[in-house]
Amino acid sequence: MNVQPNPRGRGTPGNPQNRFEKHAIEVQLEDFEHEELPPAPGTQFIPDLSKSILTKNDSPDVGFTWSINPYRGCEHGCSYCYARPYHEYLGMSAGLDFESKILVKEDAPQLLRKALDRPSYEPDIIAMSGVTDCYQPGERQFELTRGCLKVLAEYKNPAGLITKNRLVTRDIDVMREMASWNGICVLLSITTLDPEMSGKLEPRASRPQARLDAISKLADAGIPVGVNAAPMIPGLTDSELPAIIAASAAAGAKFAGYTVVRLPGAVHGIFEGWLNRNFPDAASKVMNRIRDVHGGNVSDSRFGVRMKGEGEYATQLRGLFNGSCRKAGLTNGFPEMTTEHFRRPQKGQMDLFDI
Fold first, then answer.
1. Which of 32, 111, 183, 186 has the fewest C-beta atoms lying within 10 Å of its C-beta?
2. How far apart are CA 226 and CA 281, in angstroms?
3. What pLDDT does residue 31 have?
């Protein structure tokens, strides 16, 4: 059986069928001569006309109530990304569509300002990248994350950021001001320290050393920064957990977290296909270990266990994480932030007339 390679810079070679669609077109590799394979799709940026920007979270696993996602879909192309199935609700695929058709909330900062101005809004920590990465490559062009940070800084509303992209260092000026009133913390997500592995697994995310450099720059600027060793992939990247923690601490990280990979919906087929293409000899072992962590399944939606798994392996990984943090001097979890400085800026007379 022929196995189609990933298009350059993409995490998957095709589009699995949308679970909500009855019909799909499947292209077989043998339909093409090798030199005539379809080219990798370019990235399309599609306006997202959503009228709100704050999303309420009901999961006790993630530690925040509100999140902002300026982008839907993510160009990083991580083959394990649990957010891929969200694109199916938009009538697209969790495969190439997810990483090449990016919906952009171009008025995100303005929507955020309106949300914070509402009398019903009670100050709270807002997470950025609750679903997709707010510093993915398109942010260089659109600067929506920077715009939202400026609004949060103006209102003195605290925020927590998580990203795989060194672009986060661009906004050190805004974050430094927020740090002065205990209103910001940043997590760099690191899955592996191996640049070759990272290039295959997370094709358009910053390489591991660039993420460590970002930790260093943020720490030097006085911004609370930590590492999220995530997701740990049993039998593939889990052995790197102590090294990830140690390298991050050496770069200036002060706190840490971790998760175990989970493969909901179409992500299962996308990730398993990636394994078979890149690590065929290890694929069976890795999938079996993932099932061991999730009670015989490849994912678990139950609050309290879905992020860390359960069973003997999950217990061992938790012990390895805790021991690595103690050795490196890192605390477990986000640092405390405060909402006590929140204020709604006074509007001028002309603002009352929307002029």
1. 32
2. 34
3. 46
Instruction: Give the total residue count for the chain.
Output: 355
In Å, what is the CA distance from 240 to each residue of 29, 107, 236, 246, 286? Answer: 35, 40, 9, 10, 15
- Kindly report, residue by residue over 128-144, the tens digit of the pLDDT: 987 899 999 999 999 99
Give the CA-trace dihedral at 189, 193, 194, 197, to 10 degrees.
-20
Phi-psi region at 288: left, alpha or beta (left = phi > 0; alpha = psi -120 to 50): alpha
CA distances from 46 to 8, 83, 106, 107, 215 (A): 22, 18, 10, 13, 31
Task: Please report the pLDDT score of residue 232 as a whole number.
Answer: 97
Q: CB atoms < 10 A from the CB of 49, how many?
A: 9
Token representation of residue 281: 């000899």
| 243, 197 Cβ separation under 8 angstroms | no
- Locate 40 and state its tokens: 């990798």
Largest CA distance in the chain: 71
For residue 170, the Cα-to-chain-centroid distance in whole angstroms is 18
Angle, nearest 10°, between helix axes 312-328 and 241-251? 30
The dihedrals phi and psi of 263, each to the nearest 5 degrees, come to: -125, 75
Q: Model-level pTM greater than 0.85?
A: yes
Q: What is the pLDDT of residues 236-294, one digit of tens each?
A: 999 999 999 999 999 999 999 999 999 999 999 999 999 999 999 999 999 999 999 99
Listed in sequence order, the residues at least 6 apart from 159 whose beta carbon sits closer than 8 Å to its beta carbon are 125, 126, 127, 128, 149, 152, 178, 183, 184
